[in-house]
Amino acid sequence: MDKADLEGKQEYTITVYAENRIGLLNRIAIIFSKRKINIESLNTSPSEIDGIHRFNIVIHESYEVVRKLARQIEKQIEVLKVYFNTNDEIIWQELALYKVSTDEIAERVTVERLLRQYGASAVVIRKDYTVFAVTGHREETDALVKALEPYELIEFVRSARVAIIKDSAGFHEKLKEFEAFEPGEELVENEFLDKGQKIFTM
């Protein structure tokens, strides 16, 4: 990463692996609000590890600010690990839903062509409206909004970002390393099991 990238602001996706405890999301949000940093997108979901949730937080900031934020978030007791990546370092998608007048679609070939062009699929078809779903990057979903505005676009909603880090073997591998380096208490509790009669004979 060159000096210009380090100093200039750009979009970063912060990935947080943590136990899903009450109040954690609020404490993470406070870390951002105290620094007057706007969260552009926030998504939480189960991860590949049972009992561990994954938070994807999108912000527009400089490298140094994001690095300090990641360190601050990692200080939360439930947080296991925090990563931060530029858009080039992740694979990401967002889901968008568009509600359009069914009559408008039936009467105008242009609308049907537009929806096909953006890979939209019908989710619900009713007499008064049809709901289409599109997955893609924000620029693509925003472009379809603009394209549909002249054709009675009734409603539009977009989900938060979901992202996977390109150069990652998965956090479960990292977790195995942590457990090997810092064994849990259950290993200590079982330290006498192989001693047999030597320990338990009176």
UniProtKB/TrEMBL annotation:
<comment type="subunit">
    <text>Dimer of large and small chains.</text>
</comment>
<dbReference type="InterPro" id="IPR027271">
    <property type="entry name" value="Acetolactate_synth/TF_NikR_C"/>
</dbReference>
<dbReference type="InterPro" id="IPR019455">
    <property type="entry name" value="Acetolactate_synth_ssu_C"/>
</dbReference>
<dbReference type="GO" id="GO:0005829">
    <property type="term" value="C:cytosol"/>
</dbReference>
<dbReference type="Pfam" id="PF22629">
    <property type="entry name" value="ACT_AHAS_ss"/>
</dbReference>
<dbReference type="GO" id="GO:0009099">
    <property type="term" value="P:L-valine biosynthetic process"/>
</dbReference>
<comment type="pathway">
    <text>Amino-acid biosynthesis; L-valine biosynthesis; L-valine from pyruvate: step 1/4.</text>
</comment>
<feature type="domain" description="ACT">
    <location>
        <begin position="13"/>
        <end position="87"/>
    </location>
</feature>
<comment type="similarity">
    <text>Belongs to the acetolactate synthase small subunit family.</text>
</comment>
<keyword id="KW-0100">Branched-chain amino acid biosynthesis</keyword>
<dbReference type="InterPro" id="IPR002912">
    <property type="entry name" value="ACT_dom"/>
</dbReference>
<dbReference type="InterPro" id="IPR045865">
    <property type="entry name" value="ACT-like_dom_sf"/>
</dbReference>
<keyword id="KW-0028">Amino-acid biosynthesis</keyword>
<dbReference type="GO" id="GO:1990610">
    <property type="term" value="F:acetolactate synthase regulator activity"/>
</dbReference>
<dbReference type="GO" id="GO:0009097">
    <property type="term" value="P:isoleucine biosynthetic process"/>
</dbReference>
<comment type="pathway">
    <text>Amino-acid biosynthesis; L-isoleucine biosynthesis; L-isoleucine from 2-oxobutanoate: step 1/4.</text>
</comment>
<protein>
    <recommendedName>
        <fullName>acetolactate synthase</fullName>
        <ecNumber>2.2.1.6</ecNumber>
    </recommendedName>
</protein>
<dbReference type="InterPro" id="IPR004789">
    <property type="entry name" value="Acetalactate_synth_ssu"/>
</dbReference>
<dbReference type="GO" id="GO:0003984">
    <property type="term" value="F:acetolactate synthase activity"/>
</dbReference>
<dbReference type="Pfam" id="PF10369">
    <property type="entry name" value="ALS_ss_C"/>
</dbReference>
<dbReference type="InterPro" id="IPR039557">
    <property type="entry name" value="AHAS_ACT"/>
</dbReference>
<dbReference type="InterPro" id="IPR054480">
    <property type="entry name" value="AHAS_small-like_ACT"/>
</dbReference>
